[in-house]
Design brief:
The structure holds 3 protein chains of 3 kinds. Chain B is of the alpha/beta class. Chain B is about 40% helix and about 25% strand. Chain C is about 20% helix and about 40% strand. Classes of the chains: A alpha/beta, B alpha/beta, C alpha/beta.
Chain lengths: ~475, ~260, ~400
């Protein structure tokens, strides 16, 4: 083996988002019961229907069992030992960014997401979420001119209750799974996007999620509605400080695309992954699902998953509308003792629906990386097609890579094609690059990024560069 | 000579044919009549509908005829199955001949030839007699016997595939052959073999439609008529010099015809 | 508990062999497989209970083999009928395993059983009496082809067990035929041990008639430098499960599998395979085809497990499926579980119907749709059938399939 140790050295860059913001926070007591849910709802001044929604979900959750089918091993979570609401203390009502606690602005600055008027990113509108609440949303007025609504979901509950009532829980029902039920009961904040008929959103929208406190869980909820012939590109980023305890993150994302609408949802997930011994890190149990309700609608998921101690996430598409399109592009990188069980579900219901799955898993260290996916052709999905490609790259002989594709067809006039392969960085390739004067570490990261190229090409520009860098950082020290 | 040809009945009459696939109109009123002994060339840019026309004449199930009719030897064949059209003497030479892994070329040719022979009330051939016949025809396209034992078109080079198409034409002895871009992907030697094959097979009783967008096949086989297609319609018809003019002036030149019409 | 009762009432406890007692004991703790487990979740529960409906039958009615032998030299055995064999020739010997050898080997196997995964074997071994177990030890060279038949009599549940040891350096061609009579259930469990440098070309042809059921379990251990080739075909069963478990115990072995299942009417046929590489340099090439028509259901689940020790494994698995009716259903799940890094593993799966462009091409050459479909199907089948040893010239399997399907 060439440079066994050298390659191992390449995956060890300290987590640079691991700082804690020292800010006074308002937390409610630990634990989960009906009173806590009522308290959250009351703090957020929610209408009755939402409280009912929460309580119904909570009742269902109590009857459900934590899933154990994913190939994950982790210490049992004590759901009574978690704080379900934590918010930085601020003035009652904030009317402009100037009133936001400078410490918070500074935090986001440090994370590379400046929010203030002078510094804000020019072509991306950002909704910044800190623990349980949304701090600020930029470019709101500009977006409003186009009829685009982009705000925190709490605000949407107040100002656009009709839309929330109509769509919330229609893609991910409260009883969908254990973590979705939990989220439905206790979700605190998240983003809301509404693109009206015929509008192409003039800029990318983005949410940035920051977990700050160590003992509270994060349960954000995102809802995106694209009306007929509209389109939007949405970006999501996540980081958290380093704590030696595990923090639970159970989000729900719902997307709805009507006739001819298109939604592109990109994620770069870099929650704290725990240290080399596997101490600490985020438990990332997320339910993301899009409903292609309209004809020719399209939902495209792309994700770069590099963080979290455990990831359990299957961004999916329900393809109902005729000729609707679902896509899933994923890079999941695990190192040290990280575990990732991720993939997608493409449920073809309507005729002539199409889906594409491209998944690249990279496992290094002692990590475990699984692709788990479902492709299903229903009886009415005539003329539908799916193509899936799932490749794994193994780095070191302690990492594991699994592929579990479930494929089901009830429609003869449809086609499903799945391909998967496993490879490692070949010594010949490394040698070739090195013989052309490329440094070993750079050669490795070139190969990894080449391996992920198909997925990176799907990311919005600014994300793609970020993702490349992130992978290089994460890999440092792992190859050998 | 032209008038003498027209004394006999036409082989193929395409009358005001419109067709679509997935509700997308492709042909928008095409008319074309082919008499015995005639060679027609259809030219046009990619996507003008010329390949679609050939597939519809052969009965491809993905296209729906929305208007007009196709008559073969005086009979409307709009609703005939592809195999019925083939058995009665319509031959389509594919632009991209399909590879059929696992099905032996010899067996395929035999079943196909016998289906046509049965239609013609000729005796069907057993494996032995068929091999004799095939050997004779192989010579026309200068193919080696080894081709027969391989799977249909699988692993064939571009030129071999096209020669296999002409071999099929020689075996089926069609009344009309529509050759879709038979010249594409051929080097000059292969082109000559294919062209001379076509000439040897055709006679005063057969009609030929050559679909192409280059002049070079027409240098080998001179057409009686040249049709230019654009956006699902025949926009100009002329004699063989039209093809030469087209070669010289390019397809931009034909854009003017659209304005005229 | 029903099945347990049935086994118990069928024979007096005193007559039970030790093996039967052990297995029955194990079954008692979970009389039926866990319907939520990966291996059983798609299995039709009512069909499985159909399987268990018939009364246990240890006696075998006279059975006429429907196929002629291809040559005098072929060795033909019917489990439960003429299992007495002892051939000691110049180049080779085939002899029955002694009672002690059998007991020892089976007990060893049982100790590695996973209750759920090996449920079919547990059922088999708790049911099959001495008469219905055939154990052979083969060594030498120039061994004539062997045919082994198992069948279930009408209106009964029969269990047959086959155990074969291939000693070092020997090459064997073996065809196993499982026949289901009308309204019958056959439990067939097979255990092979391939010693160093041995090779086995194994064919499995299983087919039934009206309302036949089959639980067919195949366990193979391959020592180093052994080669195991399997060609299998399952069709015409109300309910059939074919479970294949292969372990390359030291790696450095070759495994080739080509299997096919055909379902029609409301049949359900499933194939489960688990290939475990317990050493380096293992090789696997596997293809599984299914064809589902009418209201039937075809299932394939294959897993390839490559632990850390199995460096330089080269494994490929392909699942190809044809869905011919809009009331039929196909499930397929090819899986890879890999820890070793220096391996070449790939899998693929497709579900589609017959290729339309190919059909159109043939039709433009005057070949009717029916004929064109047959040509396509025959090429689809041919790849599998040509891999089944011993039989291929005689029982025109292809005609049987094309004309019955």
């Amino acid at each position: 083996m060439v440079n066994e140790n050298l390659v191992k050295d390449v995956v060890k860059e300290p987590y640079k988002y691991g700082f804690v913001t020292d800010i006074e926070t308002e937390k409610i007591e630990k634990g989960l019961n009906e009173d806590i849910i009522k308290l959250i709802s009351q703090k957020k001044e929610e209408p009755r229907f939402l409280l009912d929604f929460r309580l119904k979900a909570f009742k269902k959750w109590q009857k459900m069992k934590e899933p154990d089918w994913a190939a994950l091993g982790y210490k049992k979570i004590d759901y009574q030992d978690i704080i379900y609401y934590s918010a930085p203390k601020q003035k009652e009502k904030i009317s402009s960014l100037d009133e936001v606690d400078p410490k918070l602005l500074e935090t986001f600055d440090k994370l590379g997401i400046p929010l203030t008027e002078q510094k804000k990113l020019t072509n991306v509108a950002v909704d910044a979420v800190f623990d349980s609440v949304s701090i600020a949303t930029t470019f709101r007025e500009e977006l409003a001119e186009h009829g685009v609504i982009f705000c925190s979901i709490s605000e949407a509950v107040k100002n656009h209750a009709d839309l929330i009532e109509k769509y919330l829980g229609t893609v991910v029902p409260t009883s969908d799974n254990y973590f979705a039920a939990l989220n439905s009961a206790v979700f605190s904040d998240g983003s809301f996007v509404y693109i009206p008929k015929g509008v192409t959103c003039p800029m990318d929208l983005s949410s940035y999620f920051r977990i700050n406190s160590g003992d509270s869980g994060q349960f954000e909820r995102t809802l995106i509605i694209a009306e007929e012939s509209s389109s939007v590109s949405y970006l999501e980023g996540c980081t958290a400080p380093m704590f030696d305890t595990n923090t639970l993150h159970a989000a729900v994302v719902e997307l709805i695309a009507l006739d001819d609408a298109s939604i592109k949802y990109s994620t770069v997930q870099n929650w704290y992954a725990g240290d080399e011994e596997g101490v600490g890190g985020i438990f990332n149990f997320v339910t993301k699902r899009g409903k292609c309700l309209g004809k020719r609608s399209k939902i495209s998921w792309s994700q770069v998953e590099t963080g979290s101690a455990i990831t359990w996430k299957y961004p999916s598409c329900l393809l109902l509308g005729e000729e609707s399109v679902g896509e899933f592009y994923s890079v999941a990188l695990t190192n040290n003792l990280q575990q990732a069980d991720t993939g997608t579900k493409m449920i073809h219901i309507g005729p002539k629906t199409k889906s594409t799955i491209v998944s690249k898993g990279i496992s290094a260290g002692n990590s475990k990386n699984s692709y788990r996916g479902l492709v299903k052709m229903g009886t009415k999905a005539t003329g539908s097609r799916n193509y899936s490609q799932c490749d794994s790259m193994l780095i070191g002989d302690q990492a594991s890579a699994n592929t579990f594709p479930y494929i089901k067809s009830q429609q003869p006039n449809s086609e499903i094609e799945h391909e998967a392969s496993t490879c490692r960085i070949s010594e010949d390739q490394l040698f070739y690059l090195q013989s052309r004067g490329i440094e070993f570490e750079e050669a490795v990261s070139m190969m990894v990024s080449g391996f992920c190229r198909d997925v990176f090409n799907q990311l919005p520009m600014e994300f793609a560069a970020e993702a490349d860098k992130l992978l290089a950082l994460k890999l440092e020290g792992s190859v050998g | 000579m032209q008038s003498k040809m027209k004394e006999s009945d036409p082989i193929l009459e395409v009358e005001n044919l419109s067709a679509s696939t997935d509700n997308l109109p492709i042909l928008k009123g095409v008319s074309l009549t082919v008499y015995p002994g005639e060679i027609h060339a259809i030219m046009g840019r990619n996507g003008c509908g010329k390949s679609t026309l050939s597939k519809i004449i052969a009965g491809h199930p993905s296209y729906t005829i929305t208007n007009g009719e196709i008559k073969f030897l005086g009979e409307n064949i709009n609703s005939l199955e592809p195999e019925e059209r083939s058995q009665s003497g319509i031959f389509l030479g594919f632009q991209y001949p399909i590879e059929i892994p696992g099905v032996s070329n010899l067996e395929f040719l035999r079943v196909s030839t016998n289906a046509r022979r049965k239609f013609l009330n000729k005796e069907e051939l057993d494996t032995f007699d068929f091999e004799e016949l095939v050997k004779e025809k192989l010579e026309i396209v200068k193919m080696d016997q080894a081709f027969l034992s391989r799977s249909v078109n699988q692993g064939f080079s571009g030129g071999e595939k096209k020669r296999n198409e002409i071999l099929q034409m020689a075996l089926l002895e069609p009344k009309i052959a529509i050759l879709d871009e038979t010249d594409s992907g051929l080097d000059i030697d292969a082109l000559r073999i294919v062209a001379s094959g076509i000439k040897r097979i055709s006679n005063a009783q057969t009609g030929i439609i050559l679909i192409t967008h280059y002049q070079r096949l027409l240098d080998e086989i001179e057409p009686n008529y040249v049709h230019v297609m654009s956006d699902g319609q025949i926009i100009k018809t002329g004699e063989s010099d039209l093809a030469l003019e087209l070669e010289k002036k390019g397809y931009e030149w034909t854009d003017n015809f659209i304005k005229e019409t | 508990m029903e099945i347990i009762e049935k086994i118990k009432t069928n024979k007096s406890i005193d007559n039970q062999t030790e093996i039967q007692k052990i297995c029955l004991d194990k079954l008692q703790s979970s009389p039926l497989p866990n319907p939520r487990s990966e291996q059983w979740r798609l299995s039709n529960k009512s069909k499985l209970s159909n399987f268990l409906d018939y009364s246990v039958n240890e006696n075998n009615s006279k059975f006429d083999i429907p196929y002629p032998k291809n040559s005098q030299s072929t060795i033909r055995l019917i489990i439960g009928e003429n299992c007495q064999i002892k051939l000691i020739e110049k180049n080779y010997s085939i002899r029955q395993l002694s009672e002690d050898e059998l007991q020892k080997y089976i007990k060893e196997q049982i100790s590695c059983f996973n209750q759920n995964e090996n449920w079919s074997d547990l059922l088999n071994l708790s049911l099959s009496c001495k008469n219905n177990i055939l154990g052979l030890k083969i060594n030498g060279s120039k061994i004539p082809p062997i045919e082994i038949f198992s069948y279930a009599s009408s209106n009964s549940l029969n269990a047959k067990t086959l155990i074969i040891f291939l000693e070092k350096n020997c090459n064997v061609e073996l065809l196993q035929v499982n026949l289901g009579k009308e309204n019958s259930s056959l439990s067939q469990s097979t255990f092979f041990c391939l010693e160093e440098n041995s090779s086995l070309n194994h064919g499995v042809v299983s087919y039934g008639v009206n309302k036949s059921n089959l639980l067919n379990s195949l366990n193979v251990i391959q020592q180093k430098n052994s080669e195991y080739n399997l060609g299998s075909l399952h069709f015409k069963f109300n309910y059939a499960r074919f479970e294949i478990r292969i372990k390359q115990s030291e790696g450095n072995a070759k495994t080739n599998i080509k299997g096919m299942q055909i379902t029609k009417k409301d049949e359900q046929i499933s194939t489960y395979t688990k290939i475990y590489f317990d050493g380096p340099n293992g090789f696997l090439d596997q293809i599984n085809k299914s064809l589902a028509d009418d209201k039937s259901h075809a299932i394939f689940e294959g897993s390839i497990i490559v632990p850390k020790i199995a460096q330089k494994t080269d494994a490929s698995q392909l699942s190809r499926n044809l869905l011919l009716s809009n009331r039929a259903q196909i499930d397929t799940k090819p899986q890879l579980e890999i820890i070793a890094d220096d391996v070449k593993c790939k899998h693929g799966a497709t579900i589609s119907q017959l290729n339309e462009e190919e059909l159109f091409y043939m039709r433009t050459r005057g070949i009717t749709l029916t004929e064109a479909s047959k040509l396509q199907l025959s090429s689809y089948f041919q790849e599998i059938i040509s891999f089944i040893p011993v039989s291929k010239d005689r029982w025109n399997l292809l005609d049987k399939l094309l004309n019955e399907n």
